[in-house]
Write a structure and sequence with these properties.
mainly alpha; two-stranded antiparallel sheet; elongated
Length: 208
């Protein structure tokens, strides 16, 4: 028998609540340290509710990092909407895009911790590690396509392979985010709104 719309909505809401709880617990305890019991307790559900939505903790972890990166890409896509930088010069355009992205995706300690956990799983070859590595490569490809699209709108193209440029940009952002979280301070606004766009522009040339 197929589910009714109401049952489907309730199941979806339960699943999202379990993912929200897992996000909190995994960021605090790590993937290996977090238990199904802790996740259920945090979500306010029984183990039965958990296993009616996920076959295992590993399946939940997979679903969580897929959701996290989907949210990340959604924020990036919204930030690079052409209306964000319409009528602005290239440097101003890139700075405005970064401003918009930070409005949509402010520094998030839990996301950073989860990303570190996912990276470790990929490096160790743990269950789900290959899937994480594949997903992260896909994210790199998608961000590269976004960079090329924005630069094309601005009449520019990269003078080095775009994937290499994206690696540099992500690495710089990642390092600054880590330092800001460790030092419990705001992100360096000049680095993100001025230096990163300048770095990007330094690796571009007219598209004609």
């Amino acid at each position: 028998m197929s589910e009714t719309p109401g049952t489907t909505r309730r199941r979806s809401a339960t699943r999202e609540r379990l993912l929200d709880a897992a996000r909190d617990v995994l960021a605090r305890e790590g993937i290996h340290g977090a238990s199904v019991e802790h996740i259920c307790e945090h979500a306010g559900f029984t183990r039965g509710a958990f296993y009616s939505n996920f076959a295992s903790k590993d399946e939940l972890v997979q679903a969580l990092f897929e959701r996290e990166f989907a949210d990340l890409m959604s924020g990036i896509e919204e930030a690079v909407d052409p209306q964000t930088y319409a009528g602005l010069a290239p440097g101003e355009s890139l700075g405005r895009i970064m401003d918009r992205f930070l409005e949509l995706r402010p520094p998030d300690r839990d996301f950073f911790l989860l990303h570190a956990e996912f990276q470790l799983r990929g490096l160790r070859g743990d269950i789900g590690g290959e899937e994480f590595n594949a997903l992260w490569r896909m994210v790199g490809v998608r961000i590269s396509a976004v960079v090329e699209r924005v630069l094309s709108d601005l009449g520019l193209r990269t003078s080095i392979p775009v994937r290499q440029l994206v690696t540099i940009l992500l690495g710089t952002y990642d390092a600054e985010l880590r330092e800001a979280l460790v030092e419990d301070r705001p992100l360096d606004a000049d680095l993100l709104r001025v230096t990163l766009p300048a770095l990007l522009l330094a690796a571009t040339e007219p598209a004609d």
